[in-house]
Each structure stands twice: as structure tokens, then as C-alpha cells.
């Protein structure tokens, strides 16, 4: 991957205008689609498969008057007046009649209706008028809302002075998130951090501009998607928050590496390619972890949450793509003008022999000098911070969390004051009563039974529908909609299902907006454990692959758990305990939005892995290259030294990235949407805790405690793990071998080794020339030919058609033809067709294995095809054959009269034919196709050195080689 990204970075640097115009076109297309297709967001929360949702769907079919969204307005009489007086009753009833004809209104209920109880407060100081609309809140037109507001305003004018009329209900309970100037503060802070980091205002603006472009594309795509899916109003803001944070950070990592290299004298183009290949590889890995975690939100099985995760994942994916393409393109515009103002050289203190150490050096030095004490302090400290999380309660947002003074919040508070908290969240029991001979009496009896339960304030309505096939009981709880006691009441009602079914013959379902919210909270709570196992298990697997270690993933996962519970503790302390609630403009303390924990777990996982990779990969790199790491006596000292040097090398960039993310997230807290506030605060706290306390304090301490054991891995595990080059090892290898072999050879091999076949082979093949590999063992010949064609793994140095293996193996496989001719039928079914296809691509090299096995007619046709291809352009041929004369004749007819001959028997080889029959039989039982071979790495006995793909490969068997034609 690193070599591919390196090439992509180089191309983008060379063609900046193409890349920039392409992204601007994408932005224009996405923006146009959003304008043409966008239908707006929808805050209707649904949860398929639950009792409450099934109840709502049943009511939509049989009792639509109570199934849709509702609105209400409360009338509070002037002090000393009663709402039952004529001055109030007449205007209110007139307004109810008027509203009953409003478009979309199914029913308008007067508080004076004899069939409805409880709509006038017991002190007769207030009355509530309820309206039932068809469909969900998003189905109510703005014109209908305006008419409703106008009618209530007219009513206010008709009522006595001192009275109040306030609109509320589910229709007005959901706020539409919007951006404010406070969010811009986060961008300003990010810009200041970038200026300090890069010491250049122009360079600092690059990550910010690319991130804003990415966010613009993702926002447009999300709004365009509203034409095909239901998207909640919180979704775009969450995607905006994440897209900005990761977009700035990912560009920061690449630009910081580029700036350091340019300051060191590297050519800007070469530096951009290296930065994209090295830091860009880590960016892709980090982005993939965030994507997987966000898509994993689908674990909860809740559609709106799944949509939210996918939308945020789209924003992160776009941020990654922009980072690895547009960032090097913008560097191409700037060329070498990225060095920035040079840093002041640290001078030695008076009497000191060395310059003063940096703050990061002093910090990590202190941490690693007393690692046990530091680790205990961090763990105990974060454990204390996590204590408030034990009281974390979850619920869907309602009007009670809206800012004080807003219309719906005022109505919510007045209703609670005059009617009780439970009046803001009534519950509905519904069931089929088609078999009843007395539906009215049946519903009254059921209502009386329900009223006896603890937690029930009153029964507002118990009635059948007009066709007497469905009945409802509207229950007013004694507690608020988001109170734990209300959730207990819902469970209590459901617990009586069988009893009431036997007594009344009704299969009852508990539903309503409040019940839906409780079901969503319960399902989300149940999904936290499997999602947590998924996330932590994923982190263990990914980090084991990346670092080829057991202890590094375990410490990373434990650190992630500490960060999560501490972030939960901070959120609970603010939103439930009320600490700093006024300073953060928290409208009301109480339960937190239900999907905050699962979103926080998913997002923070990906971001925590970012810091883990960028910090620990430098530690691993320094340890691997330390000569003392190979000696058991000195390996522990080398490991601790690597922790310190690796920390110092990466601390500046990681610190800047964490500060930027914290600033972006925390900016959404003071004036942000009430639903987004706890998520933003949790992410801001989680980032600060994870970056500065866990990754930059606890992890170095634990790594120092573990010493060289941190880099050990069992041999069996090392063999089965794939090699993932996120540190850009292949890019660095290409840089070191850029001048090798020093000529224009189409094939250049030094010390080429194919495990189980041959080792130490040196080869050179000039352009437009031919080479015949011969030898007694067919398996050895085929192994070498396939290794050169990049069909099987190899070790040592190998460059084919100018591309260094194994990093450019994908290119070689796509551009170097390979034809296998075998008399026993295991080769190509039609070698001439394979050769024709290979030559059609105008390749500069073709490998023909078993050239002496072609029939006379096939040989003549093959010679003609090779001759024609050579006439079109330079073509080199590598042939393997046991009969050298036959192969020479084929090449001579094609125009290569004097091909090179190389006898592989003269090279130290490990032919399978030399094994005993028992050994050969045992080897053949390990049947793996070469395409399926996984290149593995291993560590020596002290974990001092992790080898690269070209140094270790799984041995091939002769069976493998026979089956390669698949």
C-alpha cells in the first residue's frame, strides 16, 4: 500500500491542477444533487421489531386519530381567574373548531370535552388543547405550522390580560440543529495550533482548507441522500464535526512529515511522494479503523443510528481520500515554500555540555524513570473521573432539554407545573377488541385496572375507535418522559400483558412517543456490550497485525477502555450531576441522549488508534534499528531508549492533532444542539484524556515496564499474520535502493531466494534481449520464473522492468506477461492465447515457463508473435527449459539469435526433488496455491527485529508450482 500511495502522491504533486479541479467538480456535482434532490432531514425515530413500533403501525391502520404526531397549546389563566370562565371557554372552543379544519389535522380535542379527562388542571388555572396530525412531524407542512401559530396568537388577543398561550407538543419538541459563531472558534483555534506547528501561516492554512472542502462534499452528499433515506437533523452536524476534525488531522500528519523532509534537504517532489507513502499509509489505516467503528453502529439495529454511522463514515472516507490526493497536490502548488520559519536552536545552559532537552523529552524521561508509579497514578485518576458514569441514564431528547425561553420548552415547563411531569409523555395501550360485545364498557374496565398500578397519575382516555375494532387507553405517568420511573412503568404495563389478555381478552401493546424512546434506549443499552466486544476485539486484531506484538494491542485496548469510561464520567458529571452545567449552557440536567455512548465508543476508538499508531510505530521503528536490540543483555535498555526517542519524534505532531480535535469538538458544546452537546463534550473529553493521559503518559510507562517483551510475538502467530506496511517500509526501501542496480536491466536480481527452491541467485537481463534458465529440477526453474513475474513471493533484491519487488508486485503482475507450458496439463490450457494476451498489452518483458514443451506448430506461432511484438517496441524474454536447444531455437526464430543461458544447478538451490520420499510426501500435504501465500514476518528470540516481506516467505512446494496456472 505504501508504494501505491507514494506513486499517487508523486502524481498528485506533478498534476496539482488536475487534482484540484477534479475535487471541485465533485463538490459541484454533490452540491447540485443536494439542491435538486434534497428533501430535508427527518427527526422521526423508528425502531422496527419492537412492541412500541408495532403498536404505532397498528394505530395508523385502525385508529389514525391517535397515531400521528401531536401538538398542543396550553392556556394559563391570569392570576385569580379560572379557565372554565366564559371569557376563556368561548374563545378556546372557537379556536378548537377552527383548528379542526386545518390541513393535516385529524382531531382537535377541546379541554372541555366530557369524554376526555384531565385536560383542565385541578386548580382550574390552566387548560390544554391537543391536536393530532396525520403522519410524522416531518409530514406537517410549514404552512400548517404557520396557521397553527397564527390561530394561537389570535386566541391570545381574545383572552383576558395576564393570561398566556404557549405552543408545544411532539411537533415542536425537536430542535433543528444549526451552526453558530461558537463553532468558528474551534476553527480559529485549529488555525493557531497549525501556525505554531508549521511556523508558517500559508502552510497552516492548507490542512484547514482541504478539510473544509472535504466537509463541503460530505455535507452535500448527505443532504442529497435525504431523497432516498430518512436522515435525522443530528446526522449532518455529527458528520461535520468528525469530518473537520479528522480532515485537519490527516492532512496535518502528511504535511508535517513533508515539511521535516524538505527542511532536511529532500527534493519537494520526492518528499511529497515519501510523505504520502509513509504518513499517508498510517492515515489510511487510521481512517479505516474509524470507518469500521462507525459502520459498526449498525449493531444496534436502529435505522436512524445506522444512517448516522454511514453518513459519518462517508465524511471520514472523503477526508482520507482528500488527504492522500489533494494534500500532495497543494504541496505541488507550493513546491519548496513549505519550510516555514526555522526553529530556534536550543543552546546549552551555562556549564552544560548539551543543549537543553525539549519539553517532550523531559516529559517522557520522567514517565519512563518511574513507570510503575505513573501507570498507577493514571489508572487510579481515570478511575475516579469515571465514577459519575455509574449514574449514567439514557433517554431520547424531548422538549425538556431545549434551551430555556424557547416556545416548546416553556410549554413543557408550564405543563409540568400545572398538570404534572407525566403529562408531557403520555403512554398508549392499544389492542384489537373486535370480538367484544360491549367495547365501551370493556375499555372503561381496562382503564380502571390500569389506573390501580403504581406510577399511573390518571387515565386521560379509554375508548374504542369508531368501528369498535380497536381500543386505546391513554395513561398519564406520575413522572417525566425521560425519568427512569417512567421506563419502569412501561415494563410494569407489559408485565401485565398475559393477565389482562386472560381477563379482558385484549392483546395489548404499549406504545406512544415516550414508549418508543424507552424501547430505543433499552435496545441501545443492550447493544453496548456486543458493540464494545466488536470494537475492542477489532483493535486487538488490527494492532496485532500492525505492530506484530501481543502486548502493544493489549495495552492499547486497556487504554481505550479507560478513555471511554472516563469520557462517560465527564459527560455524566456535567449533564446529570450538573457540574459546570451553567457555564456550558446545559438547558436541563437529566438523562443523556440514548445513542451518545455507542457513537462515542465508535468514534473514539478510531481516533485513539490514530494516536496509538503514530506514537508507537515510531517507537517500534527506533527499536528495530537499534543494534543493541539484538542482544538479550542490552535489549531492555534499547527498548526503553526507543520509547523515549520515538515519543520525542512524534509528540509534536500528535499533540497538535489532539489539540485541534479537542478544539473542534468542544466548540460544539456551549451553543450546540441539545442532542449533540453530550456527544461533542464526550468526544472532546475523550480526545484530551486519550491523547495526553493514555497515549502520551500511560502507554510510554507501560512500554517501559514491558521493555523488549513488548515486541515479542509467538512464532506460529507471526507466520499467519499478514504484513501491513503502515510505516512506509517499502517506500524507505525504494529510496535506499533507488540507484540499484545502476543500469537499465529489465531484470536485476542480487541474492534472489525463493523459499524451498533456490537461494542466492544473481541475474541481469538487458532490454530487448533474451535469457534461458535451465536446470535439472523443473520446480526450481518454475519457481524462479514465477518469482520474477511476481506470481510467488521471493527474498533478496529484485527489480523487474524498473520496479522494485515486492513493493511493486501488483504493477509487475499487471504488466509482465507470464505463460506456463506444461505437458501434464497443469499449465495454461492454451499457451498461445495466453502469450497473445500478454503481448497485446505491449509489455517490455514476458516470462515463458516450459518453452521446450511447445509443440512444433505452437513454437512456430509463438516465434511469430514474439517477432511481431519485438518489432513494435523493445521486448525482453525470459524462458525456462530443460532442453536448452529447443528454447534457443524458439528464441532464434523470434529474432534473438544469441540468448543468454543460465544453469540454475550452478546456484545453491534447495530443489524439492532432493528431498526424501517421506519429506516430499509431507511437503505435498501442505497444499497452498502461490496466489494464496501470505508473506509473514518473524521476530528473533528477543523480539529485536521484525523482518520485511522480502526477507521471509512461506516455502513453496512442487504441488504449488504445478497449480500456479489457476
Describe the structure.
With 966 residues, the chain is an alpha/beta fold. The model is unreliable at 909-966 (pLDDT under 50). The chain is elongated and about 115 Å long. Helix 8 packs antiparallel against helix 9 (268-295) and helix 8 runs parallel beside helix 10. Strand 14 and strand 15 (803-804) form a beta hairpin. The protein contains 30 helices and 19 strands. Strands 16-17-18-13-19 form a 5-stranded parallel β-sheet, with helices on both faces. It has a 4-stranded antiparallel β-sheet with strand order 2-3-1-4, sandwiched between helices. A 4-stranded antiparallel β-sheet has the order 7-8-6-9, sandwiched between helices. 52% of the residues are buried. Among the domains are: 413-517, 2-Layer Sandwich (Alpha-Beta Plaits); 737-962, 3-Layer(aba) Sandwich (Rossmann fold). Helix content is 54%, strand content 11%.
